[in-house]
Amino acid sequence: MDELKNAVLQRVQEYLVTEFYGRTYCDDALINLSLAFVDLARENNHLYRAIFVEDHFGVQTMREFCYKLAIERLQSNPDAKRLSKDRQMDLVTGCWIIATGIASLVSSGYINIEQKQMVSLLKAQISDFIQHDRFNSQLAPGSMANISFGNSKMAQL
């Protein structure tokens, strides 16, 4: 049964990369990934919910997949690339939180937001996180430093 589950998971990840996470909306690869996440929720809400709400594919496995992909994309941003691995994880987590909020509100019909507005919001967030050291898991007690990523594999990303 594990073989079947792993095969389905591999296929889902390949589908996400080819059909959504490879899309280009602007000149920032992390923003592209964030917008693709929103599009997944909008265009294939059942799959979005199965992965990110109902956890049909395993939280740890999908978390590692998403973080690895996001950290790879982040390397194309010269300012973000200079950050420590911990700060890069903080930045990716911040983008993911914002993208999840937008995805949830858009897919449920609560808001109608233009792509350029989402790009502007995400660019501001990324710039603010980098320039002002916001959302720093090393500074604030009770923040990201206390969020568990499940295992030590996350440290390798």
Automatic annotation (TrEMBL):
<keyword id="KW-1133">Transmembrane helix</keyword>
<dbReference type="InterPro" id="IPR036271">
    <property type="entry name" value="Tet_transcr_reg_TetR-rel_C_sf"/>
</dbReference>
<protein>
    <submittedName>
        <fullName>Uncharacterized protein</fullName>
    </submittedName>
</protein>
<keyword id="KW-0812">Transmembrane</keyword>
<feature type="transmembrane region" description="Helical">
    <location>
        <begin position="91"/>
        <end position="111"/>
    </location>
</feature>
<keyword id="KW-0472">Membrane</keyword>
